[in-house]
User: What shape does this take?
Amino acid sequence: MILERQPLIFELGKPGRKAVDLPKLDVPEVSNLIPEKYARTSKAALPELSQLELIRHYTQLSNRNFGVDTGFYPLGSCTMKYNPKINEDISRYEGLSLLHPLQDSATVQGALEILYKCEQALAEISGMKAVTMQPAAGAHGELTGLKLIRAYHRDRNDLARTKVIVPDSAHGTNPASAAVCGMQAVEIKSEADGSIDLEALKAVVGPDTAALMLTNPSTLGLFESKIEAIAKIVHDAGGLLYYDGANSNAIMGIVRPGDMGFDVVHLNLHKTFSTPHGGGGPGSGPVGVKEALVKFLPNPRVQFCDGLYSWVTSDKSIGKMQAFHGNFGIIVRAYAYILSMGGEGLRKSSEDAVLNANYCKKMLEEAYDSPFDRFCMHECVLTSKKQKQYGIHTLDIAKRLLDYGYHPPTIYFPMIVEEAIMIEPTESESKETLDGFIDAMKKIAVEAAMDTELVHSAPHNTIVSRLDETLAARNPVVKWAAQ
Ligand SMILES: *Cc1c(COP(=O)(O)O)cnc(C)c1O
Assistant: This one.
């Protein structure tokens, strides 16, 4: 089936059609409000549609969007998981959504309680002493965390610590955040099994080490089991450990970054804690810290004293990281999610996420190569190296998946795996859905060998086929212009 291009709204309707009847004007009509030199000389060429045409147009457009609510979306390192609708409803309660951040704290006790208790819950989940809810995204959390680490070293008058060690498997935001913070990223290579090379780490730590930034499970979907030895090496050298917890879907309720030896953690509420993710936001990247860094947290913080919630500030704070107190609606969703799941529920969701990823890995290991012969965590990395002999690349496989109705997994990331395919099925998918996806992936592997051109020229039943993504990003055409 080839889908047809949907007509532009400007191509629909007829002059004189209307979608609504406006009531008669009940105030005096004023002309000349717009100075003559700015006024139009002719009527704007706007589409004129009936209400039904209008509704159908936008409903059809919305049907062409792909999201978790329409289909399986196994985008690794992004945790495109299902977010229960009740959390959406709660975040829209007027008592929460209509508040103003400058309201007197006596009038917003409930909102402050949510902030305070959500901080406490996240501190418990991550094994930290305190949490700031200000950062608006994961990368913003990284910047906040590195500023906290710098403040900690400066406070001890240890000014030489400007280097941040980052493994080569890290998310690109890690070295970028170090640079934005005015520190230097030092890359270390991973071992063949995807873990940190302890000798390489020992060779770079020293009196100039501010921190090691680590993602565990790593972006290869693997748990770093040498983490305690790694933490000791960094701490012995006077550095701190930063945990990139953007995707905490594998560890909630099972293991805590604080117990692994990390000093600073960021979490992405828009990946793990029930905010839809994608399209550029809004997000939330709370940062948790151990006791020694609490006094540097962004101002102001909520405190609970004598039955009242109020704002407090610290002299040693790094200052504000957001105009106000964070993206509150997202914090409400996260708190509702945590409460409705409970500790046991969070643990179960992590267990299911890990089980689903290992199921996909095992079932696809024959058709595609697996670069690491280990159990994976919430996501698995495969490669299409085998398909290369037929001239088929990971991109072709991803495009062919669209014909089968699936959103492709993450491709070409992590960059240290050739022809990488990174699958994150998440906890909420049924075995039937996973089997359908696995079946499609296996069929594509057969097609790659038997009917190369079919895969090479995919997708075949989408409205547009292969787009020039670079041109689309560099030169987007986002408005319609009348000829
Ligand atoms: C998504 C992600 C980030 C960045 O989070 P943003 O909210 O997109 O800034 C950082 N690290 C990892 C491992 C991620 O998956």
The pocket of pyridoxal-5'-phosphate is lined by residues 77, 137-139, 171, 173, 215, 219, 244, 246-247, 268, 283, 285 (CB under 6 Å). The two ends are 32 Å apart (CA to CA). The chain has a mean pLDDT of 94.
